[in-house]
Write a structure and sequence with these properties.
alpha+beta, Alpha-Beta Plaits, 2 domains, 4-stranded antiparallel beta sheet, 12 helices, 4 strands, 67% helix, transmembrane, GGDEF_dom, membrane, transmembrane helix, GGDEF domain-containing protein
Length: 319
């Protein structure tokens, strides 16, 4: 149905996670409220239930338009609430419920909150929850819950954060990388190169590359043949380059390679290796960092050298 498809397109991973996590927490709170003989903090549970249900409905309605700060505020509320619940020495059921909900929040922090905020929060959670559980007699070796459960809870918190952080890094890498060649897209390449330039303490060169006769390959053999030429050539480059070198696809058959710790003479030697390993011919131009250069200046000089080489190739008679 078109309406169902449109509804699904309104959502992303963040809105779906908020929706289902809020529903899961709502169910947990509702189950706790079904046993009035055991739970002693019903008002707080009802308040949290209202918050989780409201969060689920809001995320479902707004979809990808849901602001990230909404999730972060909800995380803060639940972390404070869970710290309180974990401190209850006379309510083991509530304590266990709080432990079960910690991984949901930790996974959210890892996946959807940037590390500069998430890492301090996880460290704070580990410290606060650890101290709260140490002070709760239920977690004593002879307590009704026991110390192993406390250790397992903290390890689950840490594991879920690491798993969520892995998914965030993987998604970020996929978004930044050209699916065909594995090179960085234009904007991520510029960002990475700009960071390297700001930290530069040694020689650095930039290589600009343009494939020769690429349009003719596409016209004569189809775009699949052109794609294979790009894919195999960039793969060959990667096998010859160092881990610190950065490859970017600036558009079509235009590429750039940032070469840290490399002067102009060393760049020429690297180019010889790359061309020997390549499956398709290409032209190149290089520039070496000079005092006061920014990335635009480096790329401008490399492009000028590249197009000078291409003009020279066109002037050379074939056959």
């Amino acid at each position: 149905m078109p309406s169902a498809t449109a509804f699904l397109r309104r959502h992303d991973a963040h809105s779906w996670y908020i929706t289902f996590a809020a529903v899961l927490m709502s169910l947990t709170l509702a189950v706790d409220l079904l046993f009035p003989d055991y739970i002693e903090h019903r008002a707080l549970n009802w308040a949290l239930l209202v918050i989780t249900l409201t969060s689920a409905v809001t995320a479902l309605f707004l979809g990808r338009r849901l602001p990230r700060w909404v999730g972060i505020v909800a995380v803060f509320i639940f972390l404070v609430a869970q710290a309180y619940f974990l401190s209850l020495a006379d309510d083991p059921q509530t304590v266990i419920s709080a432990l079960q909900q910690l991984p949901i929040v930790a996974f959210y922090l890892g996946w959807f909150v940037r590390p500069r905020l998430a890492l301090p929060l996880i460290a704070l959670c580990m410290a606060v929850f650890g101290m709260v559980m140490v002070s709760n007699p239920l977690f004593n070796p002879e307590g009704r819950i026991g110390a192993p459960v406390a250790v397992h809870g903290l390890l689950s918190l840490l594991f879920c954060y690491i798993a969520g952080n892995y998914l965030w890094r993987r998604a970020k890498r996929v978004d930044a990388t050209d699916a065909l060649t594995g090179a960085l897209h234009r904007a991520p390449f510029f960002e990475r190169a700009a960071v390297r330039l700001r930290r530069r303490t040694t020689p650095m060169s930039l290589l600009a590359i343009d494939f020769d006769g690429f349009k003719q390959v596409n016209d004569a053999h189809g775009h699949a043949a052109g794609d294979r030429a790009l894919e195999t050539t960039v793969s060959a480059w990667r096998s010859e380059l160092r881990g610190s070198d950065v490859i970017g696809r600036l558009g079509g058959d235009e590429f750039a390679i940032l070469l840290p710790d490399t002067d102009r003479a060393e760049t020429s030697a690297i180019v010889e290796r790359l061309q020997a390993a390549s499956t398709h011919p290409w032209s190149w131009g290089a520039s070496e960092y000079a005092a006061g250069d920014d990335l635009a200046a480096l790329l401008q000089r490399a492009d000028a050298a590249l197009y000078a080489q291409k003009r020279l190739k066109r002037q050379v008679p074939h056959g």
